Automatic annotation (TrEMBL):
Residues 13-140, 154-289 form the EamA domain. This is EamA domain-containing protein. It is found in: Membrane. InterPro entries: AA-Vitamin_Transporters, EamA_dom, EmrE-like. It holds the Pfam family EamA. SUPFAM superfamilies: Multidrug resistance efflux transporter EmrE. GO terms for cellular component: membrane.
Length: 310
């Protein structure tokens, strides 16, 4: 994470807190709303607020003509992962969801060499991926040996699929939408996602109902305005300035925020599987971004090359 400016570090920390707390607010919203309705309200609110932000800032929106790219990003970075996460949290604690979502950098490292040839696999990355996915197995193990593919295991799998979406989308956005104003990127993504998810919610969960409880409205407001609007503005700003790999590392903060809120405010259990799996996943993510393994002898080099390797 070297080379980030103070401003980028501030964006990084704020985004981690915003998105790390989203799992908590999703859990609260699900107490009254079905998953597709919650996602549809969240995305619609975010799209409306982003439109007002763009209008107030007099942002040129000519880039919105690239509808095909926004269709891909709207699916991979909003509609599909939002639904997968919300649906999964019906079956697993919010703290576990935040831990599983922190596997995004692992999937990014796994997929990146296939699309970016110079981003090769290294010893720390291979070991880190192994450690990280061992953590996933630890989280899955109680359900994997007792309930087959039903119950909470399906929630774990849904979260992992959402993580894969989040690993692919920044690579695609960096390649196809680089240079666009972050407000345009977030706006195009959200309106495409809204156009996709609202009709589906209207068919599957008809008749659509609005929340009645103030806490449910607060959850929708947080997810739409703070999580999806402000969060995506920060995300695309970081993506443009530091690239997809470093931006994906924001998920370091998700387990810390998610587990603290889930255990402290929702009385979710903190089992040894959650603790051990979380430590292994975070350790794996740290390893894949290390310059070298501490037990791996460095290559013989001289001068500045040796310093860079260490």
């Amino acid at each position: 994470m070297c080379g980030l400016s103070i401003k980028d570090w501030g964006k990084f920390a704020l985004l981690g807190l915003i998105w790390g707390s989203s799992f908590f607010w999703i859990k609260l919203g699900l107490r009254e709303l079905p998953p597709l309705t919650l996602v549809a309200l969240r995305i619609l609110l975010a799209a409306v607020v982003l439109t007002l932000v763009a209008w107030a800032g007099r942002v040129p929106v000519g880039g919105l003509r690239r509808w095909a790219d926004f269709l891909v990003i709207g699916i991979l970075n909003a509609a599909l992962p939002f639904f997968l996460i919300t649906w999964s949290e019906q079956h697993i604690p919010s703290g576990v969801a935040s831990i599983l979502n922190s596997t995004v950098p692992l999937f990014t490292i796994l997929l990146s060499p296939w699309f970016v040839p110079e981003d090769r696999w290294t010893a720390p990355r291979v070991v880190g991926m192994g450690v990280g996915f061992l953590g996933v197995i630890v989280l899955l193990s109680p359900q994997a040996f007792s309930s087959g593919l039903s119950g909470s295991l399906s929630g774990h799998i849904g979260m992992l699929l959402a993580s894969i979406c989040y690993a692919v989308s920044p690579i695609y956005a960096r390649r196809r939408l680089s240079g666009l104003d972050p407000r345009v990127q977030a706006l195009g993504q959200m309106w495409v996602a809204a156009a996709l998810i609202i009709p589906i919610a209207g068919q599957v969960e008809a008749p659509l109902t609005l929340p009645r409880l103030p806490l449910s409205w607060l959850a929708v407001g947080w997810l739409g305005i703070v999580g999806s609007c402000a969060g995506n503005l920060l995300f695309y700003s970081l993506l443009n300035s530091v690239g997809p790999t470093r931006t994906a590392l924001v998920s370091y903060l998700f387990p810390l925020v998610g587990v603290i809120l889930g255990v402290g405010l929702l009385a979710e259990p903190l089992t040894w599987q959650i603790f051990a799996g979380g430590v292994l996943i975070i350790g794996g993510v740290l390893l894949v971004n290390a310059r070298r393994l501490w037990f791996w002898p460095p290559r013989k080099a001289s001068g500045v090359h040796l310093l860079e390797e260490l």
